[in-house]
Structure formats: C-alpha cells, structure tokens
Amino acid sequence: MKRFWCTFFVFWPIMAVILCWVAPAQNWWFPRGASGTGAAMSPLGERIDDLFYMILIITAVTFVGTQIGLGYVLFTGARRSDAPHGAEDAEKTWFTHGSHNLEVMWSVVPAAVLLFIALYQMEVWAEFRVKDSFPDEVRTGPIAEVTARQFEWRIRYPGLDANGNPLELMPDPQPTDLYTVNELHVTSAEPVMIWLRSEDVQHSFFLPELRVKQDAVPGLVIPVWFEATKSTDYSWLCAELCGWGHYKMKGRFVAEPEEDLREWMQELQNEQMDDGVPDDVGDSQVAD
What is the total count of domains within the chain? Predict the structure, then answer.
C-alpha cells in the first residue's frame, strides 16, 4: 500500500508535464487567432511571449526538480520502512532539520530568480505603460476613445475634414465625432493609441491575440497603444467580471490598411450625418 501512494503522488506531476507538452498542438495554449499558430500578432506581444516562456522555463525546471526530490523521498522512505522495527539491517533516517546551509540556499536562490525576472521585464513593461517610452507614432494623439459600460463598448472617433482626412480627437465630444458600438477599426502594421474609459464599474480591455490587456477604471482616462501586424478581425473581450452580462461583453476589433479605414470612416460619416431627406427633394424645394 505504501508503494501505491508513492506511485499515486508521482503519477500526477508526470501527467501535468505531459499535458503541458501536448497543449500547444491541441490548441490549449495561446489563442491561434489570425496567425493560426498561437503566436502574438503584435511586436510588443512577441516580447511579452518571450517573458512568459522565460518564466515558464524557470518554473518548469523548479517543478520537475522538486517533484524528482519528492519521488526520491517517498520511495526511499517506503523502502527503508520495509525492514522490521529494530532489525539490524534497518537503515536510519537522514535527519536534516535546522540545516543552516539549506535554509540559506532555498532563501537566496528564489530571491535571486525573482530579482532577475523583475529586472528583465522592466524594459517591456515600460514600453507598454510608460508614456515616455511609447512609440513616436502614437504621441501625436489617439485615433479613438473607447468607453466601457455594462455591457458594451462605445467608441468615439474624430470626424473627417472636407478632404477625407481624420480630424484631431478632442477630450470632449464634438459635433463632428463619429460613433460605433462594439466595433473598433484601426490601421494595421503601425502603432496606434486609444483613450480608455469606464462609464460605471471596472472593466478590462483585452485583445488576446495582441497580448494587450488594460483595466478600464472609473474616473480615469488611460492611454493604451498597440500594433496589429496583420489586416484581419481579432478577438476583443472584457476580462474583468463586471456584472451579470459580463459573458456577452465582446466586440469586433478590425485592423485594416489605411485606405480601407478611411473608406469605412467616410461611410460611417455619411450614415451618421444623413438627415433622411433625399438630395433631389431638397433641390426641388429650393427651385420652387
């Protein structure tokens, strides 16, 4: 019975390693999305993936090492206890409680690993969250304002001028602004920025294929930048439990070439600025 329990406790760590090994092939890993491979669809996302895999390797080595040690202790203890109590050939237990060297080792090594991770990720974190480290292309201003509310996303775009060029997005709504719900269009293959707001509770703006995730906090206007490398539709979710309708709070995120984006915005402007009166009716009234 002792060996059964030893095998039982060793079996599950082995299964965990096997499942993690086959997970990518079974699509239990990063979302495949437009890439079809689970690779990040943004330059910043690729660097975030590198951090993830670096931490995964460290934790995997630690996990495997500790489980090997656990298996050794279990089976060794079971073998030693097979001998009758008091027998001459019984092996004595190795007692290590209070070992100063061991205490120092398992305190210093984890501290050094955590310090290494903290320093290694600072540049990537700064690029994502520190304004001074944002790409030069997005410092000119946001292309849209995204406001989260229970349970939808509301997007405000600047309107277009007479030549079809986007106007500057102002902090406060303007008569020329354009609006959509749950549909965000941006240019692909270049960095873009949005302003992120929340109208009620805390939500989370999450683009899994781009590895972008930022909480929307009531009372704050948070700049978020990202770059979609491929022109296609992406997943857009709320990753913060925000109420009973959280499960359905998702939108359509579209990255497309600049000319397609201008065409779409022109159609949106024509639709929203249409007064419902045909042009020929207006012309005939002027003639009368």
Answer: 2
Within this chain, do residues 140 and 248 fall inside the same structural domain, yes or no? yes
pTM of structure: 0.82
Q: Determine contact, residues 239/204, Cβ cutoff 8 Å.
A: yes
Q: And the tokens for 139?
A: 């410092």
Nearest to 56 by CA among 14, 106, 94, 21: 21
183: confidence class by pLDDT, cuts 50, 70, 90: very high
**C-alpha separations of 264 from 12, 236, 251 in Å:** 53, 19, 17
- Residues 171, 175, 180, 186: what is their CA dihedral angle, to the nearest 10 degrees? -60
Say whether both 125 and 140 belong to one domain.
Answer: no
Report the DSSP beta bridge partners of residue 203.
216
222, burial (CB in 10 Å: exposed 0-12, middle 13-18, buried 19+): middle
Residue closest to 220 by CA, chosen among 134, 146, 130, 140 = 146
**198 and 263 inside one domain:** yes
* Closest to 16 (Cα-Cα) out of 6, 5, 3, 28: 28
